[in-house]
Amino acid sequence: MPEYQTLGLGKHITSRDLGLPGLIKFRPCSRSVEMAADRMAMEYWRKLGWSCGNWVSLFVNFTAQGYEGDVDHPTKERLDQAIQICSEQLM
Questions:
Q1: Strands 73-74 vs 69-70: parallel, antiparallel or unpaired
Q2: Cα gap 42→80, rounded to integer Å
Q3: CB atoms closer than 10 angstroms to residue 70
Q4: Which phi-psi region, left, alpha or beta, contains residue 66 (left: φ > 0; alpha: ψ -120 to 50)?
């Protein structure tokens, strides 16, 4: 099992988790910034005429693989938000 799948929601992703050397520091965004970035990405997709269902599928696939994300990138919350935004865009 890849190491990233064992992180869990109580931990932050580190440079080492991403295979980066120790000299490179990985500074993740906060949960609220990550959720806002997802909303913005889905809006860009809508403007380009791309299906929001693809964004939802991304997180469904993460969930199917048992990937919960980390404390700043919670897969379930991101999936729930994507489903909500997608349903609003389809109205």
A1: antiparallel
A2: 13
A3: 21
A4: left
Backbone phi, then psi, for 83, in 5-degree steps? -65, -45
The rounded distance, in Å, linking the Cα atoms of 82 and 67 is 16
The amino acid that residue 85 corresponds to is I
What's the CA gap between 57 and 52, in Å, rounded? 9
- Give pTM, 2 decimals: 0.73
CA pair distance 2, 18, nearest whole angstrom: 11
Tens of pLDDT along the chain (91 residues)?
344 444 555 677 777 777 888 787 767 788 899 999 999 999 999 999 999 999 999 999 999 999 888 888 899 999 999 999 999 887 6
